[in-house]
Amino acid sequence: MSTTILGGGLGGLSAAYYLLKKDPKSVITLVEASNRVGGWIKSNTQDDGVIFEQGPRTVRPKGPQGANTLALIEELDLSSHIKAIPTYHPAATKRMIYANSKLHLLPASFTSLFKKQTPFSKPLISLLFKDVITGKPAVAIKDESIYDFVTRRFGTEVGDYLISPMICGICGGDAKQISVKFLMEGLFEKEQKHGSITRGIIASWLNKEEKKNENKPRNDLYQRSINERWNVYTFDNGIESLPKRLEEVCRANGTRFEMDAKCTGLDFSAKITTELSNGRVLTSDKLISSISAENLSALLINKHPDLAKLLQRIKTVTLAVVNLQFNEKLPIEDGFGFLVCPKENRPILGVIYDSCCFSYTDKTVLTVMLGGHWFYDHFNDNTSEEEFLHVALTQVADILKIDQLPDNYKVNLLKNAIPQYTVGHKENLELIQRYIDAKRLKLHLCGSSYHGVGINDVIMSARNMADEI
Ligand SMILES: Cc1cc2nc3c(=O)[nH]c(=O)nc-3n(C[C@H](O)[C@H](O)[C@H](O)COP(=O)(O)OP(=O)(O)OC[C@H]3O[C@@H](n4cnc5c(N)ncnc54)[C@H](O)[C@@H]3O)c2cc1C
């Protein structure tokens, strides 16, 4: 059985890896439009060793998805290259938001929940009472925005100051449009079942059966992450170490890589034919698509317009990422960085303090994220690198009071980079799968458009897909 994989980002590479793991004799061709693998993952090492991450920078070790990634890292022999940030490091304990024209430290410990901390008007613990006394909605809700959900249960301050900036940080999105099932499906179900999130959580604690069935993954690296109290981690040469190593292993095990080869046409007849921009035509028994739903939709619009329309519903947002390096230690507080509340109506989503996260002791390295859901309110398709840099520096000067020019910088436009799981996303996925099953298309989907936008989710979705095939 031969397989064509569309896309050489983390999704496509993980799919190739897991298919080979399942059947080492798999005949796989991976098709990638650009001249490199990794997709949005790009770690740019500067002459002095500073790494400018242009896309993702850290991975979470927790939960079944986190453990699965750690198992993969072990299998790839990358464990010794891990660089972890422990839970007691300032980059883990000091996360800030920018609201009401000021930076505020977010509560990071159990005791801090009992204190009143700006911009909140009450201690966060008191909001639990609101959840307990607010009844279940009169009519069962199938899905709603994550902002509406938390506001209904905990009040608008949690919606505005916690959830909205958090959604900006995770997917550059607007919490008022993103589905509650994107991040809080478990809490949403608890509310629907028990009438309150707090009551639902207490019920789960008491339910020994539920605890017994908890999926407790185990591997040595996962255990190490617990023993050493990792909060997040990267690799000593940056996150790109992961796709690079996956490529190496897949190539060594027989996967053929068609680089600089954009898929321009698909036909699902007895055999699947894949047309490439370099003029080649591939035939295979199965097709795995790890490219974005938007890109796949464009390939299906003529022959499968109904499926294409469902895929088109999964929109993406565009970001500009500006890495800034100052060759001196500037007076900014240690911490992970800050996220901006959308109410501030600024062109930035947030700023990450790389020098604190990755211990650049004699320098200040920052990453400024611009745009996301609000990209076209502030920029357009012709905005130049200089303009992005100017906006980033103006924001940094205004918020962090750093008004000098950087010694080094890099600007990157990430067009249509992050999929948005808006209200109804999960139901839309069911319709997509129903269409594929009904037409018996030998098409399998993975990548960040479907079952989670983070690195762990993408790897897990590739593994689940390989298991199901
Ligand atoms: C700025 C930013 C910051 C992020 N930060 C984090 C983070 O800190 N932690 C975290 O866990 N996650 C983070 N993420 C998410 C993470 O980067 C993604 O989940 C992951 O990289 C997506 O991988 P993918 O393979 O699904 O897609 P992609 O990386 O988009 O890969 C798809 C590949 O398909 C290729 N392609 C597209 N169309 C075609 C075609 N027609 N023919 C052939 N090839 C094609 C593309 O060139 C690309 O290489 C971040 C994302 C961004 C953009």
Beta-strand residue fraction: 15-25%
Query: Care to count the β-strands?
Result: 19
CATH architecture tag of one domain? 3-Layer(bba) Sandwich
Major beta sheet summary: 7 strands, mixed
SS content category: alpha/beta
Round the Cα radius of gyration to an integer and report it: 23 Å
Which regions are unreliable across 5 or more consecutive residues at pLDDT < 50?
A: none
Q: Which class of one domain in CATH terms?
A: Alpha Beta
Assembly classification:
single chain
Gross morphology: globular
Fold-level CATH name of one domain:
FAD/NAD(P)-binding domain
**Share in helix:** 25-40%
- Ligand list: flavin-adenine dinucleotide
Mean pLDDT: 93
| CATH superfamily caption of one domain | FAD/NAD(P)-binding domain
Tally of helical segments: 18
Spatially, the strands of the biggest sheet line up as 7-6-15-16-17-14-18
Alpha-carbon distance between the termini? 11 Å
Description:
- This protein is α/β, with parallel strands linked by helices and 469 residues long.
- Among the domains are: 2-41 and 240-314 and 422-468, FAD/NAD(P)-binding domain; 104-212, protoporphyrinogen ix oxidase, domain 3 (Orthogonal Bundle), CATH 1.10.3110.
- The chain contains 18 helices and 19 strands.
- The protein has helices at residues 10-22, 63-75, 90-93, 124-133, 146-154, 156-171, 185-194, 197-206, 208-212, 220-227, 241-252, 293-300, 305-312, 354-357, 375-378, 385-400, 425-438, 455-468, and strands spanning 2-6, 27-31, 43-45, 51-53, 82-86, 95-99, 102-105, 230-235, 256-258, 263-268, 272-276, 281-284, 286-289, 316-326, 337-340, 348-353, 364-372, 408-419, 443-445.
- The chain has a seven-stranded mixed β-sheet, with helices on both faces. A five-stranded parallel β-sheet has the order 9-2-1-13-19, with helices on one face.
- α7 crosses α8.
- The longest helix has 16 residues, at 156-171.
- The chain starts with a strand and ends with a helix.
- The model has no long low-confidence stretch (mean pLDDT 93).
- Flavin-adenine dinucleotide binds at residues 6-12, 31-34, 39-41, 55-59, 262-263, 290-292, 295, 319, 321, 414, 417-418, 447-448, 453-455, 458.
